[in-house]
Amino acid sequence: MRWLDTPHLTHGWEAGLIMEHATGTLLCSDLFADGGTDHPPLFEGDILGPSDAFRRKLEDFCSHTKEMRALLALLAALKPNTLARIHGSAWHGDGPNLLLALADVLEPNP
Asked: Which end of the chain has the least Cβ crowding within 10 Å, N or C?
């Protein structure tokens, strides 16, 4: 297990996530929160689209720190294959690409 400081990702300055290396599981807090859709405990479907829609419906609960892309790249470099979310089922698949796609979605528009 490894603690990762992720200030302001997704919320306050004291934020952090945990990577469990033996199984490749990233305990990713609210990064892909979707309000608790009706999925099995572990699934491989789309979580980016539903989480983006959920975030926008709540008037965007992410802090959008200027370090967001670098922090998501750091998480992607850990090569997680399972994302354990607080609000929603755990997801299994290409975690690095999904985390980088999240960076693109959260990037502020100029």
From this structure: C
- Cα separation, 83 vs 85, whole angstroms: 6
Quote the tokens at residue 45: 């479907």
Is-contact 41 92, C-beta < 8 A?
no
**DSSP letters for 17-63:** EEEETTTTEEE-TTTT--S--S--SEE-S--HHHHHHHHHHTT----
Within a 13 Å sphere around the CA of 89, how many CA atoms are in the beta-carbon half?
14
* Both structure tokens of 81: 């294959």
pLDDT tens per residue across span 17-65: 999 999 999 999 888 888 776 788 999 999 999 888 887 777 666 666 7
Question: What is the reported pTM?
Answer: 0.88
Pull the structure tokens for residue 18: 């945990």
